[in-house]
Amino acid sequence: MAFTLPKLPKFSGRTIAVLAVAGALGVGAVAAGASKQQQAAAPPKPADGQAAPLTADKANDQTSLEAAAAAEAKLVQCRSARLIPVNKTWGIPMPSVNGNSSTNCNLKYGDTPHRGSDRTGDPLTAIQVLQRNLNSCYGTKLTVDGIYGKNTRAVVTMVQRKHKIVVDGIYGPKTRSAMNWRLYSSATRSWSKTCSSPL
After folding, report:
1. Which one, of 180, 179, 170, lies nearest residue 72 by Cα?
2. Which residues of the chain have pLDDT under 50?
3. Is 124 exposed, middle or buried (0-12, 13-18, 19+ CB in 10 A)?
């Protein structure tokens, strides 16, 4: 059984041109309507040199991150260093609170190595442990001097940017948990070949 196409009406060249223009206008109108909807949904673009406006969700996130960073900045200075166990074989040497294994402390610019008039503990070792780890895991060339100066702050800032956390140049719990560490085995007295973030 043969299939035949229905006969199409014959249009003059002028009619075809009019239909083509009408079709193009229709497509243009649909595209323009979609563009207006996208513009209405998108936030306005900032002028040159201005920061992008924050949406309500981003503003809330930013506020909570800044509040957490402010709370970390008020923590006590790390005045010791401890091997914090990760598993039965490995641990991480990291700055800690003097007298216990808590790592909820901070180190910040101006610790030389003590902060203020308090001379307790061993902040020199805490800062040196941080500096050695930054050199091992991030390829930096900090002088391991136990002073939290501008170079150490700059490297901590780089690490915070890399791990997309609040950039304030202060080593605290958020930075500790985000950054990579070199592990140490007390049993074999050896260091891990690579760095990781096991916290």
Report:
1. 170
2. 1, 3-6, 8-9, 11, 15-22, 24-31, 34-35, 38, 40-43, 49, 51
3. middle
Does 113 sit behind a cis peptide bond, omega within 30 degrees of 0 on the bond before it?
Answer: yes
Residue closest to 133 by CA, chosen among 190, 177, 182:
182
Distance CA(77)–CA(63), nearest Å, equals: 24
Q: Which residues pair with residue 195 across a beta bridge?
A: 182
Q: Which amino acid is at 14?
A: R
The values of phi and psi at residue 81, to 5°, are: -140, 135
At residue 22, the pLDDT reads 47
In contact, 96 and 82? CB cutoff 8 Å: yes
Which of 163, 165, 161 is closest to 62 using CA atoms? 165
Tell me, yes or no, if the pTM score tops 0.70: no
Q: Which is nearest to 156 in space by CA: 108, 121, 112, 110?
A: 108
What is the C-alpha separation between 147 and 107, in angstroms, rounded? Answer: 10
Based on its alpha-carbon atoms, the radius of gyration of the chain, rounded to whole angstroms, reads 31
